[in-house]
Amino acid sequence: MGLFNFAKEVGKHLFGKEAEASEKIKEEIERDNPGINDLMVDYKDGVVSLSGHADSPEAMEKAVLMAGNVKGVWEVKAD
């Protein structure tokens, strides 16, 4: 899908430590699952990488927006 940029200091506060970020972001997306199966989330230095099987392009777009609207995230990569 591609690369998306976001405002790092704006968004929902989900994690305090980088070590817990991947799991917290994954939980947030799965809580309101937009249609992503086998979701994998990796967070490092403000960059989130998402992968999985989307039911539709809209489902992947929603997952990207959900990940990007987390405080501390400035970039989302989606495959």
Automatic annotation (TrEMBL):
InterPro entries assigned to the protein according to its UniProt record, in alphabetical order: BON_dom
Highest taxon of source: Bacteria
Domain BON: start-end pairs: 17-79
Listed PROSITE patterns: BON
Name of the molecule in the record: BON domain-containing protein
Organism: Thiocapsa roseopersicina
Phylogenetic lineage: Bacteria, Pseudomonadati, Pseudomonadota, Gammaproteobacteria, Chromatiales
